[in-house]
C-alpha cells in the first residue's frame, strides 16, 4: 500500500534476531520519537544443591539474560508512556517468515516483532528494519 505502519522500528540488516537494545523510532501518541528499548530473553537454568546428609535436589532459577541468538521468547521494556502497556510483554517465537527470518507474537495480544526488508513496498532502495 506504499505505507509502512508500525509502533516502533529499528533499521537493521541483521535478520538473525531482533536487536537486544538500542534506540527505536516509536510512535507515541502520533509523534515518532527515539525510545531506548530492551529485549531480554527469559531463561531458566538449573543448579544442583547438596545437603548435609548427602541427598541432592535440583533448583530452578529464572533469570533474564541479554539475547545473543534467536531466542524462543523475549520480554520488552523501555516503551514510552503512551505505549507503557507494552512494557513487560513477552513475545514468543511464532515461526519464520517466507524469507526464513524469525518472527515473534506477544502473549495475549496481537502485537508482533519481525524483520522487514521492504516495509513500505517501495523496493530494494528502502532500509531493512525490525518492526
Sheet with the most strands? 8 strands, antiparallel, barrel
* Helix/strand structural class: mainly beta
Mean pLDDT: 79
Instruction: Specify the overall morphology.
Output: globular
Rounded to the nearest angstrom, the distance between the terminal CA atoms is 17 Å
Summarize the helix and strand pattern as letters.
EEEEEEEEE
Sheet with the most strands: spatial strand order:
1-2-3-5-6-7-8-9
Notes on the protein architecture:
- The protein is mostly beta strands.
- 0% of the residues lie in helices and 51% in strands.
- An eight-stranded antiparallel barrel has the order 1-2-3-5-6-7-8-9.
- About 18% of the residues have low confidence.
How would you sum up this structure in a few lines?
This protein has an eight-stranded antiparallel barrel.
Q: What keyword list fits this structure?
A:
single chain, about 130 residues, mainly beta, eight-stranded antiparallel barrel
Ordered list of secondary-structure elements with their pairings:
Elements: E1 8-11, E2 21-28, E3 31-50, E4 56-66, E5 73-77, E6 90-96, E7 102-106, E8 112-116, E9 129-130
Amino acid at each position: 500500500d506504499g505505507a509502512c505502519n508500525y509502533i516502533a522500528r529499528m533499521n537493521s540488516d541483521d535478520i538473525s534476531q531482533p536487536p537486544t537494545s538500542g534506540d527505536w523510532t516509536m510512535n507515541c501518541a502520533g509523534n515518532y520519537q527515539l525510545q531506548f528499548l530492551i529485549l531480554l530473553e527469559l531463561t531458566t537454568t538449573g543448579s544442583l544443591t547438596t545437603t548435609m546428609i548427602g541427598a541432592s535436589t535440583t533448583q530452578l532459577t529464572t533469570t533474564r539474560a541479554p539475547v545473543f541468538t534467536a531466542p524462543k521468547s523475549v520480554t520488552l521494556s523501555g516503551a514510552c508512556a503512551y505505549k507503557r502497556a507494552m512494557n513487560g510483554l513477552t513475545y514468543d517465537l511464532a515461526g519464520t517468515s517466507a524469507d526464513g527470518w524469525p518472527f515473534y507474537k506477544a502473549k495475549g495480544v496481537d502485537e508482533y516483532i519481525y524483520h522487514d526488508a521492504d516495509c513500505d513496498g517501495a523496493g530494494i532502495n528502502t532500509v531493512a528494519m525490525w518492526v
